[in-house]
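Listing S7. Sequence submitted for prediction.
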Amino acid sequence: MKLIPRNTDYAVRAICYIAKKRPAVVSVAELVKKIKIPRPFLRKILQTLNSEGMLISYKGKGGGFRLARKPEAVYLTDIMEAFQGPFKLNECFFKRKICPDRNKCCLKKKIDSIERMVYRELRSITLGSVLRGH
């Protein structure tokens, strides 16, 4: 199981690079060169971050992306949820249907507790704390 799949990992790397260059606008070409993410994949990632309000895009000559919020206002969970949807460790599916024992399952209660704890920890990580190395 991967908690952070490739697209989320690339998104974190891209937004960190852009944040380090604040307040400059960073071009896609510069990002491709510096963080070595395939251009088509990177464009999709940047478009998602833009549509989620984490980046601002600029078109034309000198265009690119810059951070839309202060680094302390961008949470790791914001980035994760933009690419993965709501944070869930287990959906309680059984053969593509919701498990019929979901409401009385003792394991689900424990997993839900772990999920809340993991979410709280992830929610404490901001782009600012990542940039400071904390």
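Caption to Listing S7: primary sequence and predicted structure tokens for the chain studied. Residues 6-132 form a domain with the Arc Repressor Mutant, subunit A fold (CATH 1.10.10.10). Residues 107 and 113 are 10 Å apart (CA to CA).
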